[in-house]
TrEMBL record:
Residues 181-387 form the DNA/pantothenate metabolism flavoprotein C-terminal domain. Residues 4-134 form the Flavoprotein domain. This is Coenzyme A biosynthesis bifunctional protein CoaBC. The gene is dfp. Pfam families: DFP, Flavoprotein. Coiled coil: none annotated. Pathway: Cofactor biosynthesis; coenzyme A biosynthesis; CoA from (R)-pantothenate: step 3/5; Cofactor biosynthesis; coenzyme A biosynthesis; CoA from (R)-pantothenate: step 2/5. Keywords: Decarboxylase, Flavoprotein, FMN, Ligase, Lyase. It comes from Spiroplasma corruscae.
Length: 389
């Protein structure tokens, strides 16, 4: 049975948390973890919360193994309901001064945030900045509050999800990626370089955002994730199996080391198609190298094609960046490189936070997703992989 940590914070929507608990325990084992202010809203009669153990036993009897560590290693999911303005700010700022915030500081599995507050509080610039920090974490999902009647009597954004809606989301969460739980996944992303000399190189405008969103979503959904990444426009989220490779050759060398142990291989990287034929191992100097007036190119190592030649059991996913949705070209690439699935996206998605994609499978099934933010696109891609394997 899956184990859920239900973190209740001190907002008016906490009055619904007991109902949520009673629904969840029909299907899951549930630990209730409350902030100090949550006790002002929740009738705890009949409930045993971890705070009682933490407050009384941890401090009075001197536990050597903290309860937040136990919860972090022996649970499958955190639900923060409601996520208040104060608690969101605390998590975003790295403050861990009670059991709920300590737990989130330690655990690596997913946390589902269900914010609830006054409309002006939700639209506050500080809250929106903190929201961005939390949604950029590798193991969080943020559910925008509803538009409706608030505790103040006003109408606006900030209304909590109803408990039955949260249960549906949790059920979907555990069922949606069930085929990935025992799978090892190899992912590449970011851009590579073609060196001209010791300090100059040719590259492309890919930011690496799409691959990083895939990484964020996959970390908690599979048995093992190995990420081989090139240059990106941001600091890549760290985990145990991060490997930097900034040329096609290095990318292939690192990927092939892990390839045989992988069940799924996702090639999202923007790798160079051409490279300089004879790069210099020193810096070109205009006074010395006056006769250099042209640069010759050759085709770069096609990492995806080379991997496809060694494919045995692996479910292989490729990406195609194109000027338009040319399905014939995508289908040819899928067949030529022995792919199980190809994701087609357009050049106008470069450096953008949103994307429109088409997914084509080797069975010639086509799926289209329009104008989604890249975190949602990543989930759609992962869902489709989960459905097919």
């Amino acid at each position: 049975m899956k184990i859920i940590n239900l973190i209740i914070t001190g907002g008016i929507a906490a009055t619904k948390a007991k109902e949520l608990y009673n629904l969840l325990i029909k299907k899951y084992e549930v630990n209730i973890i409350m902030t100090k202010n949550a006790y002002k809203f929740v009738d705890t009669e009949g409930l045993i919360t971890y705070n009682e153990i933490f407050d009384k036993e941890f401090y009075e009897n001197g536990h050597h193994y903290a309860d937040h560590i136990k919860l972090a290693f022996n649970s499958d999911l955190n639900i923060i309901y409601p996520a208040t303005y104060n608690f969101i700010g605390k998590v975003a700022s790295g403050i861990s001064d009670d059991l709920p915030s300590l737990l989130l500081a330690v655990c690596t599995f997913d946390s589902l945030f269900f914010p609830s507050m006054n409309t002006n509080m939700y639209n506050n610039e500080i809250l929106q900045k903190n929201k961005k920090i939390i949604t950029n974490l590798s193991n969080t999902q943020w559910f925008e509050p509803k538009f409706g009647k608030l505790a103040s009597g006003d109408y606006g954004i900030g209304r909590a999800y109803e408990p039955i809606e949260v249960v549906s989301i949790v059920d979907n969460y555990f069922n949606k990626f069930s085929n990935l739980i025992d799978k090892n996944i190899l992912l590449n992303f970011g851009r590579t370089r073609s060196y001209i000399d010791k300090v100059r190189y040719i590259t492309n405008a890919s930011s690496g955002k799409m691959g990083n969103e895939l990484k964020k979503s996959l970390i908690s959904k599979c048995n093992k994730l190995v990420s081989i990444f090139g240059d990106t426009d941001f600091n890549v989220i760290q985990n145990a199996n991060n490997i930097y490779a900034n040329t096609n050759v290095k990318m292939y060398e690192e990927m092939i080391k892990h390839f045989n142990d992988m069940d799924i291989v996702i090639c999202c990287g923007a790798l160079t198609d051409f490279e300089v034929t004879n790069p210099l191992d020193r810096k070109i100097e205009k006074r010395v190298d006056k006769n250099i007036n042209e640069i010759k190119f050759k085709e770069s190592l096609d990492v995806l094609k080379e991997l496809s030649r060694k494919k045995t059991k692996q479910f292989l996913v490729g990406f195609s960046l194109a000027n338009d949705f040319n399905l014939d070209k995508a289908r040819n690439k899928l067949l030529e490189k022995n792919l199980d699935m190809i994701v087609i996206n357009l050049t106008n998605a470069l450096n953008s936070d949103s994307n429109t994609i088409k997914i084509l499978t080797k069975d010639n099934n086509l799926y289209e997703y329009e104008n989604l933010n890249k975190s949602d696109v990543a989930l759609k891609i992962i869902e489709k992989i989960n459905d097919i394997i």
